[in-house]
């Protein structure tokens, strides 16, 4: 059974809940991608390569911007779903953002995202689950930070967002280490992931500026 | 706290008219049961150019500082839009640059320069100004009853806390200048002290596990306790112990509205001068304490000594100005 998440973003209208479902071991990425290319209206999703998603908030930041731009008539791409893919990008190249963050023929970890609309009240968590279960050949997994932790390709993200690898802390005179205490460096890998998220969200927010 | 009317919030933070009504169609039934209503953003401060709100962003447990630059009716509309965009983006770019280079500033969570808002990570804690006010109030007798400088504070722990804070401020400003950013408005209200992550105050091996009361909140870059992550549970100044913050808090720089990335020694020196003046009005022993800021600053990056020499010129000019004016 597909586990679907219904996410309501603070400040976005009640009419626009976000449905998100994650799959691994996906076998039919080429088919799914083809449906997007053909504009098949049954397949109005943001189909993301889950290995390019760092965290739940990474996705939500893109969703917030895409829905906000939709509400105020500022979409740069075909619809709110393609805009979610584009909003993950740090630059204005739409085609490149699809290649990098969107589903490709070789995608095996898929994140499917759909935005509910007042004009389509029949789109519910149940209807989305039912459709995805029949459309996606793969194993459903939960969409949460723990699951993403095992899926994300950090090297790819570092490349896409032009981030440097973890920098060795510059050596400081012993006296200064003493004054600054143990709090001065954010070191563990969980923390470096969060630091990465902070930078990525900033770069996404600045896109197009 | 100043009251605010809904129009002081940008869209979508004001309730957005339902899509169905906007298009003139009959209202549609709600798709799913409405979730608990979000408390409206709380106005924290109202500056000349901007309003600062506290609210949730992306998830209910991600606290955010929302800075809104409303349109100025007295400015030509097109010019106003251009200025708003330029200032908002200057602030966002400086914050992003700082954060990616490891300088402690709020992370940028989102922005809309057309609507005029910038969503930043909320930094829990107190501004240095508020923290010193609370601290001096609590320990009034310790310091002002004697004319001796703070080093002679009868409570050595308190004096050590103040000196330690000065060192951390010097280091923070040094890091900022080292990466080529100048702040432009370095007052004690634009420096915050954040409670340290619990892990660093607890001896190794005794940390609570992630299941037992501590968890990591995305987009904040810090471990937080459960109480801290619930945005609906509001935060107030009284939640923080000023003395503990002085002793253990980390120093964060905020308010990059006037920051620049084309730094000259002059701009760096002016940053230090503004900070010196700001400290001078907050603490009786400020002059002596500020030497510690400058000492640590001077050792914190390669060009620091030149900036310090320039500070002497800036001070001299400041004295001359105040003699004339
Ligand atoms: N990220 C944050 N986290 C917590 N509190 C904040 C944050 N940003 C601002 N504040 C609080 O709000 C106050 C005002 O914010 P800020 O200094 O950015 O605005 P301002 O001085 O009005 O700005 P400007 O000078 O650009 O008009 C701060 O002194 C601080 O108390
Ligand atoms: Mg300020």
From TrEMBL, chain A:
GO terms for biological process: tRNA threonylcarbamoyladenosine modification. This is EKC/KEOPS complex subunit CGI121. Component of the EKC/KEOPS complex that is required for the formation of a threonylcarbamoyl group on adenosine at position 37 (t(6)A37) in tRNAs that read codons beginning with adenine. The complex is probably involved in the transfer of the threonylcarbamoyl moiety of threonylcarbamoyl-AMP (TC-AMP) to the N6 group of A37. CGI121 acts as an allosteric effector that regulates the t(6)A activity of the complex. The EKC/KEOPS complex also promotes both telomere uncapping and telomere elongation. The complex is required for efficient recruitment of transcriptional coactivators. Keywords: Kinase, Nucleus, Transferase, tRNA processing. GO terms for molecular function: kinase activity. Coiled coil: none annotated. It is found in: Nucleus. GO terms for cellular component: cytosol; EKC/KEOPS complex; nucleus. Belongs to the CGI121/TPRKB family. SUPFAM superfamilies: PF0523-like (SSF143870). Pfam families: CGI-121 (PF08617).
Automatic annotation (TrEMBL), chain B:
It holds the Pfam family Kdo. One of its GO terms (molecular function) is protein serine/threonine kinase activity. GO terms for biological process: tRNA processing; tRNA threonylcarbamoyladenosine metabolic process. InterPro entries: Kinase-like_dom_sf (IPR011009), Prot_kinase_dom (IPR000719), Tyr_kinase_AS (IPR008266). It comes from the Eukaryota. GO terms for cellular component: cytosol; EKC/KEOPS complex; nucleus. It catalyses: L-seryl-[protein] + ATP = O-phospho-L-seryl-[protein] + ADP + H(+); L-threonyl-[protein] + ATP = O-phospho-L-threonyl-[protein] + ADP + H(+). It is an enzyme of class 2 (transferase). SUPFAM superfamilies: Protein kinase-like (PK-like). Keywords: ATP-binding, Kinase, Nucleotide-binding, Transferase, tRNA processing. The keyword Kinase applies. Residues 1-39 are annotated as: Disordered. Its EC number is 2.7.11.1. Residues 26-39 have a biased composition (Pro residues). Residues 38-325 form the Protein kinase domain. Component of the EKC/KEOPS complex that is required for the formation of a threonylcarbamoyl group on adenosine at position 37 (t(6)A37) in tRNAs that read codons beginning with adenine. The complex is probably involved in the transfer of the threonylcarbamoyl moiety of threonylcarbamoyl-AMP (TC-AMP) to the N6 group of A37. BUD32 has ATPase activity in the context of the EKC/KEOPS complex and likely plays a supporting role to the catalytic subunit KAE1. The EKC/KEOPS complex also promotes both telomere uncapping and telomere elongation. Component of the EKC/KEOPS complex composed of at least BUD32, CGI121, GON7, KAE1 and PCC1; the whole complex dimerizes. Belongs to the protein kinase superfamily. BUD32 family. This is EKC/KEOPS complex subunit BUD32. The lineage of its organism: Eukaryota, Fungi, Dikarya, Ascomycota, Pezizomycotina.
